[in-house]
Amino acid sequence: MDGQALAGKVAIVTGGGRGIGRAEALALAALGAAVVVGDFGRDETGRSSAGQVADEIRGTGGRAVAATEDLMHDSGARQTVAAALDTYGGLDILVNNAGLRGGNPVTRLTDDQWNTVLDSHLKASFLMARHAIGPMRDRGGGSIINTGSEAGLGMVFNAAYAAAKEGLAGLTR
Questions:
Q1: What are the distances in angstroms from CA 77 to CA 1, 136, 142, 143?
Q2: How far apart are CA 122 and CA 133, in angstroms?
Q3: Which of 12, 53, 94, 101 is the most exposed place for a label (fewest CB within 10 A)?
Q4: Active-site hit among 48, 49, 120, 149
Q5: CB of 71 within 8 A of CB of 77?
Q6: What integer pLDDT is reported at residue 154 of this predicted model?
Q7: Active-site entry in 48, 88, 120, 165
Q8: Whole-number pLDDT of residue 153
Q9: Which residue(s) pair with 96 in the sheet?
Q10: Is 161 one of the annotated active-site residues of the chain?
Q11: How does pLDDT run across 99-141, given as a tens digit for each residue?
């Protein structure tokens, strides 16, 4: 595959500071896309996970900025999309990968845990898409990729995570 297949494209990867999101951000950058790495997480020293991945991308000659907003709130989603628009002038690709787990059986899962897990997957993906669609249309189109999981079929002690992933599949469809 051409190393610059995505040259001139701008991507946002939510949850891009670690795991699958990090791999997605690095892959998009390797293909030439400018990347907004979204993640509000921090490592054990307090350093931004998104900042570390953005530094890694820039260290290989790529273009990247970090966005550390909480995407479970409209203002955070709006600010993350604005980071792409303000820094790179547009948006072509949105990868909704961010999401938290709530590792409790249903009998011990609190309302707050349930809401946080669902909001981190479903609400954040919805808000990001809502703010991304207009700028993508302005550029003639774009792609929204929602990272799913087989956990949507059921996952012991992770009912909220399973429900969120199945809900994300429905949102995508």
A1: 32, 15, 17, 17
A2: 16
A3: 101
A4: 149
A5: yes
A6: 62
A7: 165
A8: 60
A9: 146
A10: yes
A11: 887 777 888 889 999 999 999 999 999 999 999 999 999 999 9
Binned at pLDDT 50, 70 and 90, residue 158 comes out as confident
Determine whether 112 is exposed, middle or buried from the number of CB atoms within 10 Å of its CB (0-12, 13-18, 19+): exposed
Which segments of the chain does DSSP mark as H helices, in order?
19-30, 49-59, 74-88, 111-118, 124-138, 159-172
Quote the pTM value: 0.93
Is 149 a catalytic site residue?
A: yes
- CA–CA gap between residue 93 and residue 159 (Å, rounded): 30
Residue with structure tokens 């929204």?
Answer: 144
Judge contact between 27 and 104, C-beta under 8 A. Answer: no
What pLDDT is attached to residue 73? Answer: 97
Residue pLDDT, tens place only, 37-62 = 999 999 999 999 999 999 999 999 99
Report residue 139 as tokens. 């550029």
The catalytic residue among 9, 49, 88, 161 is 161
Which residue type does 62 have?
A: G
DSSP assignment of 94-121: EEE-------S-GGG--HHHHHHHHIII
Task: Give the H/E segment covering residue 34.
Answer: strand 34-38
